[in-house]
Amino acid sequence: MEKDLQIKLVKKAKKGDAHAFVQLCEMYQVVLYNAAYKLLLNDADVADCLQETEIRAWQKITNLKNEAAFNTWIFRIMVNHAKDILKKRVAVIEFEERHAKSEVADYGAPDLNQELSALSEIYRIPLVLYYYAGFSIKEISEQLKMSTNTVKTRLMRGRVKLKNLLEEENNG
Predict the structure, then answer these.
(1) Which is an annotated Pfam family here (predicted)?
(2) Which of 36, 115, 108 has the alpha carbon at shortest distance from 79?
(3) Distance of CA 109 to CAs 19, 115, 132, 171, 172, Å?
């Protein structure tokens, strides 16, 4: 997206122009959806996450200081809300895992989304932001409020863990 147009639309949205805000959201909806889906792996949760992201962004648009950083800002909102959803889901998942008695054999090819979802959130989020949303290491460090070296380390460790999971799936 052209930065000049983004800045113009953000300035209008900050003045209360809902149409300009809708245009901004439409410009980023595909990449936001893809990133949210890679984090949440559930269409209903993704829909809730994106809806809440847009609501929160509209409510806080006047707090955005750098109009050129709208994309980073709205991604931070989406990632934070996705993390909230994942935290709420943890208790349910742990309960299901403890009480699941039947195992279904799956002899198909390894599923990247399934293996990605098996990674810890500290590795999954940087991987999704880097590889699926296309953010730079610097942008990820700003969004997640951590040093660039920490992001690089988590990307490297996440890739290694993902590779190991995929190899286990192929060999297992």
Answers:
(1) Sigma70_r2
(2) 36
(3) 45, 11, 21, 11, 11
Around Cβ 150, how many Cβ atoms within 10 Å?
16
Which residue's entry shows tokens 């300009």? 20
**Structure-token match 């893809």, residue found:** 34
Q: Distance (Å, rounded) from C-alpha 123 to C-alpha 101? A: 29
Fold of 1-101: Rna Polymerase Sigma Factor; Chain: A (1.10.1740)
User: One digit per residue, pLDDT tens: the chain, 172 residues?
Assistant: 488 999 999 999 999 999 999 999 999 999 999 999 988 888 999 999 999 999 999 999 999 999 999 999 999 999 999 988 887 776 565 555 555 544 444 445 557 778 888 889 899 999 988 888 888 999 899 888 899 999 999 999 999 998 898 888 777 6
CATH 1.10.10.10 in the chain is located at: 104-172
